[in-house]
Amino acid sequence: MRTTSNPAFRNLPTTGGYANFNYGQGQPASPFGEAPAAPPQTSRPMTIDDVVTKTAITLGLAVVTGTLTYLIGPTAVALALPAAIIGLVISLVIIFKKKVSPGLVIAYSAVEGVFLGGISYVFAMLVDNPAIVMQAIAGTIGVFAAMLVVYKTGAIRVTPKLTKWIIGAAAGAAVLMLVNLIAGMFTPGGLGLRDGSGSPMLAIGFSLLCIGIAAFSFLLDFDAADQAIKSGVDAKFSWYIAFGLMTTLVWLYLEILRLLSYFQRD
Predict the structure, then answer these.
(1) Model confidence pLDDT, tens digit, residues 36-62
(2) What is the structure's pLDDT at 26?
(3) Which one of 70, 86, 136, 189 is CB 3.0 to 4.6 Å from 117, fit for a cystine?
(4) What is the b/e burial string over 51-70, where b = at least 16 CB atoms within 10 angstroms of the residue's CB?
């Protein structure tokens, strides 16, 4: 399986072990001269339906909790930061835990929905335009659908070289965000990468760059899922893929929401 920029896929196995074509070769025969029987299958290989179903569950839950959080009004703002911290902790547990945990993925989706609902309310009030939320959602869906079409049609093929470029770009963007955050502790606006009022063109350019990286990251996510299905990995690992797609979607949505806010500020 190729490398991906999404840490959520680090626990995906490279082989499934479902073929069992060579089972019994080199193994001691039974007293009756027969090869030992293959062990009973307690699970099954992953299918595209598993990925779609688990992804729909996680996204649906995030939409529900996000909508409910947004609708409670100003209280949503107070919930955004705690939800972000809890979501980060859960995501780290999912990434570094060796065993698949559907419950943690579901919990992450619910908490992340609360965070998105709260941050969406903040941006809506910042620009005094609640419609910005629906615009960001529509933009996120559009980019996701477009990259899925690009991947399925083979218009852009996922090669080792492209993978390295995307991973490098994502890492570079993350470093710049961190440096900008640290600089913001000493200088208002930091480097200006996230300050739409101080350096609008620089902030707009950086958001467009991040949106592009997030969009191309979907290609790596789709390829990782495709390789996992072809390798016949256990169906339970579809929860990892759903979690991975969720993290990329959250990043893309936040970048689009931020970009739209730059154009709607007074």
Answers:
(1) 444 444 478 889 999 999 999 999 999
(2) 43
(3) 70
(4) beebbebbbebbeebbeebb
Query: Taking the model in full, what pTM does it have?
Result: 0.83
Is residue 69 within 8 A of residue 79, CB to CB? The reply is yes
Question: Between residues 167 and 3, which one has the greater pLDDT?
Answer: 167
Neighbours of 37 (CB within 10 A): 9
DSSP states of 48-81 as a string? HHHHHHHHHHHHHHHHHHHHHHHHTTTHHHHHHH
Q: Where are the alpha helices (DSSP H) in the chain?
A: 48-71, 75-96, 102-127, 131-153, 160-184, 200-231, 238-264
Closest CA to 9 of 252, 249, 262, 227: 227
Closest CA to 235 of 52, 51, 4, 109: 51
Counting beta carbons within 10 angstroms of the beta carbon of residue 216, is it exposed (0 to 12), middle (13 to 18) or buried (19 or more)?
A: buried
Helix, strand, or coil (residue 192): coil
Most confident of the ranges 17-21, 24-28, 222-226:
222-226
**Average pLDDT over all residues of the chain:** 84
